[in-house]
Amino acid sequence: MNRIKQSTEGVAEIYLYGDVESDSWWSDSETSAKSFKDRLEELKDITQINLHINSLGGDVIEGIAIFNLLKQHPAKVNVYVDGFACSIASVIAMAGDTVYMPRNTMMMIHNCWSWVSGNAQDMRKTADDLDKIMETSIESYLSKIKIERKELVELLNAETWLTAEECYEKGFADELLPLSETVAQQSATKTIEKLLQENKQLKEQTKEKNIVIDLDEETAKKIAEKISEQILKGSSKKEPKGLLDSQNKNEKPKT
After folding, report:
1. Which residues pair with 5 in a beta bridge?
2. pTM for the full model?
């Protein structure tokens, strides 16, 4: 499911869960590039996109288009790997200005593949085509990661599973999160956002009594940090269970 909503003014929450799929002749896919584009256009004046990913991958063509839609968007893009970002989903993650990964999440990278039938000439051509198509993913990775092309290609050839820490070391991720930080930080952020929204109203209500209430952005950030620390200290250490959707395969190139 590709669920997009505007959580607060100027901030869009996007959930890319399940396979990345193209539209079919009988129905539109919620995770296609067209669906992604159409829903983004419905949101006006967006300055920040929070993209949450839990996907085993899917259609290369759709994934590269989604990557470019995010890179071309003027908003700041934060990517949160909520579970697994595999194949083309890991490529989409590279569009993030900042990629966050809790320590119990993973990425998987490999070469794209396809089904083919025909004679030897058909199969050789398909192999050559796949090499060219794979360059789109390689260039996307190289726009973000710290390692050299040679090491990246070796990892792709080996179909490599990367832990959150390995992703951080190689540049696939920018920030490692404790298991509880995602929920805690979001809770603190929502609390501060509510305070800021009410601040103007509070000042108007207390003006007649000569009481000044003015919560500036710097103060709000400090309060948010304190709230986050307290929530994290009291949070449960129990790790949530994950849910993996099975990957639907078709004859289009897949990663």
Report:
1. 13
2. 0.69
Return the HEC string of the chain.
CEEEEEEECCEEEEEEECCECCCCCCCCCCCCHHHHHHHHHHCCCCCEEEEEEEECCEEHHHHHHHHHHHHHCCCEEEEEEEEEEECHHHHHHCCCCEEEEECCCEEEECCCECCCCCCHHHHHHHHHHHHHHHHHHHHHHHCCCCCCHHHHHHHHHCCEEEEHHHHHHHCCCCEEECCCHHHHHHHHHHHHHHHHHHHHHHHHHHHHHCCCCCCCHHHHHHHHHHHHHHHHHHCCCCCCCCCCCCCCCCCCCEC
How open is the CA angle 250-87-247, to the nearest 5 degrees?
Answer: 40
CA-to-CA distance for 98 and 89, rounded, in angstroms? 15
At position 79, the amino acid (one-letter code) is V
Task: Please tell me the least confidently modeled range out of 27-31, 87-91, 193-197, 209-213.
Answer: 209-213
Q: Which residues contact 193 (CB under 8 A, 6 or more apart)?
A: 8
pLDDT tens per residue, range 169-218: 999 999 999 876 555 455 555 555 555 665 655 556 555 555 555 556 66
CA 86 to each of CA 35, 74, 91: distance values in angstroms, whole numbers, following the listed order: 21, 26, 8
Pairwise CA distance, residues 167 & 174, whole Å = 8
**Between 255 and 141, residue with greater pLDDT:** 141
